[in-house]
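User: My instructor asked us to take a sequence, write out its structure as tokens, and then describe one feature of it. I'm not sure where to start. Here is the sequence I was given:
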Amino acid sequence: MYGDFFDIKKTIEENIERQEKLLKSYEVMLDVKENQANQTPRECVFTEDKLKLYHYKKSTRTSTKIPTLIIYALVNTPSMMDIGQDKSFIKKLVDSGLDLYLIEWGFPTADDKYITLDDYINVYIDDCVEHLRKEKGVDKINILGVCQGGTFSLMYTALHPEKVKNLVTMVTPVDFSTDDGLLFKWGKYLNPDRMVEAYGVVPGDFMNTGFLTLKPLSLMVNKYLDLINDIDDPNYLSSFLTMEKWIFDSPGQAGMAYKEFLNSMYRENKLFKGEMEIAGEKVDLKNITQPVLNLYAERDNQVPNAASIPLDKVIGSKDYTAKCFPTGHIGMFVSRRSQEEVAPTVVDWIKKHNR
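Assistant: Let's start with the prediction itself. The structure tokens for your sequence are:
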């Protein structure tokens, strides 16, 4: 009677198979490495307040005399660029001969409420650049700016062009007028003044809640379904847990700088319009006459292409290269394409322009 609808033997076998997979997954979870991030050897060479400047130890003979400084965004940590030694963007750059440095901003606390964009641009970044110039005995360095860190890099280079030889921007917004992407659409209506009044330092959890809403529900669900299917693979599980830690381990945002950035960029688009000022000094992107490489991701759901592409319209450089890769925001740093195409593009371009 029930034979066509209910196969008892098959059901028992499937349940046993699930139980065996579950037991195996427990064993895998006990042995899995908790964190694959920041495995490329490095040392801290400079500190200031909560900032740390790291130098990556050479794995091969450095083929560039001029050091390259990575400036990352204030949101999240730069560990995403160094996840897993087989797919680490940073390791690929170091192994390819770049003399690489990276700024880690640290986690702001209540006493950092009054840190401004001027502090980030003209104090923290400039002090790191000065450290490299002195340590390496060079007049200029290369800068690689990522996401919001790329926007900071544009402002820094415009204000201190004599200290920068080459500039690379990756998934970097410069024109905030676009309505592509929810963050850029919502950013025009956010009230950062009220947020800072309420929090002082805007909590990372608050920021995460906003960023998670930008991701389609199907992506959020599918990644956990994929985890269930591959939970007995220790490498996959370790990478998954590392990425989850990166997503949710977000620093807070220093109140004054957060307010300045949202008001000036998302609400008024001052940098692109040529109206931006830092500590009373105009930030004129036409001052950027250095060679510029602008890389962006075709399927970026955090920084729309429309925000990155117009960079050449506002800078003064005559040596400008833009390149789009068919991947997403994170895929620029954690993917096979990152290893095979993105990182080699950065390395080849920097080596060519370091001559």
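For the description part of your assignment, you could build on this observation: The domain at 42-353 is CATH 3.40.50.1820 (Rossmann fold). Try explaining in your own words what that tells you about the chain.
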